[in-house]
Amino acid sequence: MKRKYLFLIVFLLFNSNVILSQNTYDIVFPNTDSERNQKCQKCFQLFNQKPKEVKFSVKREGTNLYFYVNDKNWFNQLFKNGGDGIAVDVVDKSRYNCELEPLEKTQIKGQLLKPVYASKLRSLLIPKGENNYRVHVGRVSEALAKKELEYNILFLSNKNLCQYYTIYDLESYPWDLLDMGMYLDSLTYDSKKIKANAKEGYILRNKTLKFKIPFEKNKSEYSQEDIKPIYDSLRLTDFNIKSINIKAYSSVEGSLERNIELQEQRANSIVAALQSFQKPKIKTKVSSSENWVEFLNDIKGTKHENLIDLPKYQIKEKLVGELSKGIEPILQHHRKAVLELELEKKDKYKTMSANDLLSKFNLAISAKQLNDANVIQNSIFKKLKNKEISPDFLQKMQIPKQAKFATILNKNSAFKYMLNVRQALIVYNELQALEKLVPKNGEVKYNIVAIKIKMWRFKWLEINETKLKNQINALKNHGIHSSLIFRMMVNFHIIKAENLMRKRDYANKDKSVTYINNNYKNFPLSDYDYLSLAQFFSYYANVDMAVDLLKNKAKSIEIDEDLLFYYLNLTLINKDLTQDSDYRSIMLNAINMNKKRFCKLFNAVEDGGVTFQLLEDEYLKETYCENCNN
Fold first, then answer.
1. Contact 9, 165 (CB under 8 A)
2. Which one of 559, 571, 580, 609 has the fewest CB atoms closer than 10 angstroms to its CB?
3. pLDDT score, position 190
């Protein structure tokens, strides 16, 4: 699901009266808070009453700057009188060079452009895209336009500076309903990964196993006892390893180069051991990093806690000699590999042709050999998934419309939907007919409701909200676990919130958002679910909910990279969080995962960053300069 994600806005309070020596035109800078409160009463009131869904920003096209807003009525109220206006402060990133002394706090950070007042703003405001408007508010010089720039907004009331805004941008991902899965042999979920260009459609999720393997200091060999659970798990199943994702971690002492070398050796030794267990080639993805997260967490409350605030290079300098020996009981737990194995069920009919499989399946159905038919059906599904045969092949499978074949019929219909969600209405009708044969079958009922919710989402089906809610809740009477029902109800309110948002019914939309926030804890979430929900909360201007959702995940060394960086996007502007010692370990985790991506957060908004003005925060600037200043 693609969305245009609007800029978020953060209001920066200013207490200093220092103004750079430049032309401030006819703008009045109130000297005290009481003076500002008196002169800006109307402006403050409009901002306080502004629905959180109202968004605005400044964007550059060539050398021209435009103010964008998505609510024309609020815009017209804000710029009602002659002295109400906008001025743009053009800020150059060179102001934050690491070599410079700490910045003097100023109200104006860059080059102030001439204000534009109400009559011009209102008369020149034009529609620009769906539910969006823009007006020209200034121009930057050709020389300045070649630099890394950002554009802060001064809101003026009767020519008094009342509000000063810095724009920051969040990386956008698609978000959708939480995956409800479909019942085949068991509940089968989509295996969507977090990607900025994620596509619609289902891919059957294979079985996954997770293991941790510890390593001794300066050694790449693992203990046979540590890897034995992996072998035992594989021997007890009829699965092959399809892929391995290995995250290798070293303890933080010693040189980075040696640590990386050890991590790669450790990962390769594990891959070689597992590959010897089977003939099919295993796809492998290996990442490696120093384990700063667990190190900083584990030394809290110990006699080594004083190391937490030191730069990384100083910590490494101290972790030698006696200190290294004394802290070894902590460090020994940080040398490990975390494995995630994706397993693929062995297919006894893998080499059989599609036509032979079809004949064998139809014979098994005729003989009422349902277990054999089920195994053959799964082999056919695998060929469909791998696009070895066309989806039309399903029509050739001769399955009588009888209750005894309900499981086979349900699987065929559900798989048809998973292959192509656009078959939803056809499959929905098939399953409703099947439900009449097996009216107490919970799996069939579950699939019907899951498809119905999806069709409501895409407006393929008119539904009665009360009846659908009752239908979801009634699933508990047919053996469906409460966690699955809660997941469906969260999806119900995601759709309802969208519909209410379109109607600008913000109060009832907020009730649905609150329901979601109160109930997502009632069922397990995949990484894709976490990011999708966080995006949902942020889109509806509930950033605090998104932060609360991700904060515990962000502290884990095993967090998905995109989840971690999205959490940073949400929190880097919150000084209460960035000053906390936990936040440093979160940032170091991000640097270890993807240093280039971390440094990019501090680029200009136009260059894919959150904002380089984050570097106003000396704590963030210190981390940035330590890791990103080439």
1. yes
2. 580
3. 63
